[in-house]
Amino acid sequence: MACVECKERNYITKKNRRNNPDRMEMKKHCPRCNSHTAHRETR
User: Fold this and answer.
1) Residue 13: CB partners within 8 Å, gap ≥ 6?
2) What sign does the dihedral 21-23-27-28 (CA atoms) show?
3) 28 closest CA partner among 41, 18, 15
4) pLDDT for residue 39
5) Which residues pair with residue 11 across a beta bridge?
6) Partner of 41 for a Cys bridge, out of 10, 14, 16, 24, CB 3.0 to 4.6 A?
7) pTM of the predicted model as reported, rounded to 2 decimal places
8) CA-angle at 38, arms to 30 and 16, nearest 5°
């Protein structure tokens, strides 16, 4: 997952693509921004 603000890839997640075809988005801590920001799934 990549930070929406600085585009740094911080987290690795696994999901079932058949049940959740759309991209996942969560609020997580970004060490580069040093704050809690939205992280979106990247391919």
Assistant:
1) 1, 24, 41
2) positive
3) 41
4) 97
5) none
6) 24
7) 0.83
8) 105
Quote the tokens at residue 14. Answer: 């696994």
Which residues lie closer than 8 Å to 15 by C-beta, 6 or more apart?
24, 41
Alpha-carbon span 39 to 6, nearest angstrom: 10
Cβ–Cβ < 8 Å for 16, 41: no
Q: What is residue 43's predicted lDDT score, i.e. its pLDDT?
A: 84
Query: Could you report the per-residue pLDDT of 1-43, keeping only the tens digit for each?
Result: 999 999 999 999 999 999 999 999 999 999 999 999 999 999 8
